[in-house]
Design goal:
The protein has about 450 residues and is of the alpha/beta class. It is built from 19 helices and 13 strands. The protein folds into 2 domains: about 5-230 and about 405-425, Glycogen Phosphorylase B (Rossmann fold); about 245-405, Rossmann fold (3-Layer(aba) Sandwich).
């Protein structure tokens, strides 16, 4: 029986697991669920913040860490020492986290990977077996150790940390901050591990190219399986009244890659009857308020603060159009979420966004970093209800075809089968990244 014909025993390792902590947690939960629906068996080793209950998994084991980096980031030195005894802090991995955090490094990927290596090694000694280990964006030395033990190991990289580091350099205001940026990201470790393991899964051809360029991974070891979406939750609602003048954006003004300043400049060129809702931190210190004041659009801007998923879905459903003004995206999840909810998108010609728009046919593209182009493209949608309706209908249909979790899980399982066939000495291409979505 070939690997593609039989149920597999898969162990996921993820150093952060909660859906609220970002894409890692969402990816872990939904992919694990869909793989079990395909008949595979899933165990999970996960770090804090821990995931929502995963009743479909055979087992979920929490691997604790002291979460010291957040304490150092907020300069809560006393809190670190008050919460933990000297005996706890002096344990080797805990001490590594303590010192690394204090020196400005991100310790989680390495420390978690070592804890996962220890736990899986113990299980193997006790006779447990796994067909494959799936690492979720950790790529620590412990992940490489699992590969060295003889386990097939794959990892998911939505985009390499080099992208985040470049964005951080844009924010840095002095040499000290730039040095801090250089220290923080464990790029050397992750790139080395990525080159050694069996396969890298990613979510776009743009991300695949970036992984090749920045991490040095061979193109033939990368598979684009796209990214998944809960199309039952993110869906149109006929009873929701559509606005004819509200533009929605989901993005952090503090991240230069999100292009929010360009959006504010573009918004100032639109009719005064339009409004902009931004899902972002509503703290008064958010620079978007200063930009809006300078552009003369503060009265037409609403910043929501953090919203629950159900409210986000309602915002998508109600908006006339969703704008994604990013300077780079490894995938562009807000664009796909919006189209799944039946709302057309205007995105910038940057990163993977042209791929997403081409696959979904649910939006229009504007030029990157160009307020005039962005304003013109938004105005095109605002002025043409028939175009909005056509894009909304097509976008929803094609999101279901290409980005629903069952399709992504099936493509991932095909990737597993490919790895296992190669391990058996029978190279068998079961999928290709040349035609994403097929």
């Amino acid at each position: 029986m070939s690997p593609s014909d039989r149920p597999l025993r898969i162990c996921f390792i993820a150093y952060r697991g909660n859906m609220a902590c970002g894409g890692q947690g969402i990816y872990l939960w939904f992919l694990a669920r869909e793989l079990t629906r395909l008949g595979h068996s899933v165990d999970v080793l996960v770090g804090p913040p821990y995931p929502d209950p995963m009743p479909f998994a055979q087992s979920v084991q929490s691997l604790p860490n002291l979460e010291l980096w957040g304490r150092w980031f907020t300069r809560d030195w006393r809190g670190v020492l008050a919460e933990h005894s000297p005996t706890t802090l002096l344990q080797p991995l805990n001490f590594y986290e303590l010192i690394s955090s204090r020196l400005g490094f991100l310790p989680e990927p390495f420390a978690f990977s070592v804890r996962a290596f220890r736990e899986l090694s113990r299980r193997l000694r006790e006779g447990q077996t796994y067909d494959l280990v799936h690492d979720v964006q950790c790529l620590g030395w412990g992940t490489w150790g699992l590969h060295r033990l003889g386990l097939p190991v794959v990892s998911t990289i939505h985009h390499p940390l080099t992208v985040d580091r470049r964005a951080s350099f844009v924010r840095d205001e002095n040499l000290r901050e730039a040095i801090g940026t250089m220290q923080f990201y464990p790029i050397g470790m992750q790139s080395r591990v990525a080159r050694q393991i069996d396969r890298i899964f990613t979510s776009s051809e743009e991300s695949a190219r970036t992984i090749v360029r920045d991490f040095g991974v061979r193109p033939d070891r990368i598979r684009n399986v796209l990214n998944g979406l809960d199309t039952e939750l993110f869906s149109p609602a006929p009873h929701t009244k559509k606005s004819t003048s509200e533009i929605l954006c989901v993005g952090r003004a503090s991240d230069p890659n999100k292009g929010i300043r360009t959006l504010i400049e573009a918004f100032a060129r639109l009719p005064k009857t339009t409004s902009l809702t931004l899902v972002d931190n509503d703290h008064p210190g958010n620079e978007v308020f200063k930009w809006a004041q300078t552009a003369g659009v503060a009265s037409r801007l609403r910043v929501t603060g953090r919203v629950e998923t159900t409210e986000l879905v309602n915002l998508y459903r109600r908006a006339t159009a969703v704008v994604v003004p990013s300077r780079y995206e490894g995938f562009g999840l807000p664009a796909v979420e919006a189209m799944a909810c039946g709302t057309p998108v205007v995105a910038c010609r940057a990163g993977a966004l042209p791929e997403v728009i081409a696959l979904s046919e649910g939006g229009l593209l504007a030029e990157r970093d160009d307020p005039a182009s962005l304003a013109h493209t938004l105005l095109t949608l605002l002025d043409q209800p028939a175009l909005r309706d056509r894009l909304a209908k097509t976008g929803r249909q094609r999101v279901e075809e290409h980005f629903a979790w069952p399709r992504v899980a099936a493509a991932t399982a095909a990737g597993y089968a490919e790895v296992l066939s190669e391990r058996r000495g029978v190279p068998e291409r079961t999928m290709t990244s040349d035609k994403p979505g097929h």
